[in-house]
Fold:
Amino acid sequence: MDRNAVAAAFAALEAHRVEIASHRVTELFTADPGRFEAFTARLDDLVYDYSKNRLTKATLGHLFDLARAAGVERRRSALFAGEKVNATEGRPALHMALRNFSGKPVLVDGADVMPDVLAERRKVAAFAIKVRDGDIRGARGDIFTDIVNIGIGGSDLGPAMATRALSPYGRPELKTHFVSNVDGADVADVLGGLDPARTLVIVSSKTFTTQETMTNAASARAWVASALGEAAVGDHFAAVSTRLDKVAAFGVKPDRVFGFWDWVGGRYSLWSAIGLSLTIAIGPENFEEFLRGGFDVDEHFQHTPLAQNIPVLMALIGVWHRNIWGFAAQAVIPYDQRLLRFAAYLQQLDMESNGKSVLRDGTPTPRATGPIVFGEPGTNSQHAFFQLLHQGTEVTPVDFLIAAQPTDADEHHHVLLVANCLAQSEALMRGRSEREVREILKAQGLSAARIDELAPHKVFSGDRPSSTLLYRALTPRALGRIVALYEHKVFVQSAIWDINPFDQWGVELGKELCGRLGPLVAEAGADLKGLDGSTAGLISTRNALLAT
Ligand code: F6P
Structure:
């Protein structure tokens, strides 16, 4: 990366912002009837519309200069070539190998990983088919009706998000549940409604050391053993991990252990055997379609010029908003109830990747990095936090996601859903001026005094940025595309900010302190010396509450 060239590109963008700040997006549409076509990019039936953001061809020119100065294309080549792009952990980041349908090898340390990837995928598929067909059953011969995935972070969010998103591809007689929180209420609430004789538990953990997962797995193991006997445990558990040694110690049968590799980051692991619960839910053929969606985007990302490259455009527009306009957050609003967990999934992908304050060489970042990501499906979010998006003092760019057609829902509902989605992005862009407000209130017959009183409250500034991803339907392939688009978006932004998106040291300190505090919380009367006043005070107060 040429830091001087990057600084110059950022400076050019700053100057350009001043030039276009006085133009409203609605004026840009009036001036250019072809704006929608000019500011959309396509991948098959998926359309990325970014025309409602305050930007012009000149803006894009400056953003592409920035991408080139930051060496985005070189970083992309390094990623796909299997270079150790995750330098602090000394690993490549090759989740793309898990969805590689090119027939070409993918090398890690000179060895092709594809034979192992395909063998593991076949093993997962065979197991999933047997569970779905009732050929693999519980210890008493019962067909499994419930699958419980125990995992957290990437070992939970991806499968949970995708299983919900693709629920129409599942079978009503086979339900999937997810347990993640160390809060015992989570495992108790899920297992409480299930019959152990008909339940298969999948313990999913890359490291097989994560406190939450190991604690929940032990509770689930005790639940099975107490109901069916210790000997039944092997028939009711499967595991997914990179640490096969640790899985063996837990007592899972070897033919129910599925592996992946340390070059798959936790938040990118949905494409691996971590997708076992999803594969059982939707079937291996649909899971392969999901993988193919990811592969579509890998091809698009690698071979499409920057100007039509959707993840590159998503990333650059994000940088334009984050660094040049100073917008701190990014909302993601799927108009799809089945994408209920998409924002949570994306929070880990984006914030665990790009929530960094040092460059790859360890020096402080000169500018802001990853935004705060949040969201909820529309239309529910319209009735929760959209007030702030429309009239709050913070401007928050929004990504809208919407399918052209419902998967198996009512057409009339879907027309209303689409209309709501488009109405929100239109309202954010157009706003409503005080003059318009006054005219409307006057037409309603309000007195001049009442108009003076109400008008300021009914003004919308407009020019609030949003982009829309429109796709035919939320099929497995479409979901694979959407997930991979965001993965590569996050990667491109990390390249521009020159940070490592594949490590997550920020989660370690809390884990370490929890290890130290656990015994102090457990033991009433423990010596709290050395703790800060607040932490010690809260432990003592809790002890006092427990004692009364
Ligand atoms: O939260 C930190 C983290 O390491 C994530 O990156 C990861 O997805 C999650 O914990 C779960 O880790 P594991 O799969 O090893 O249990």
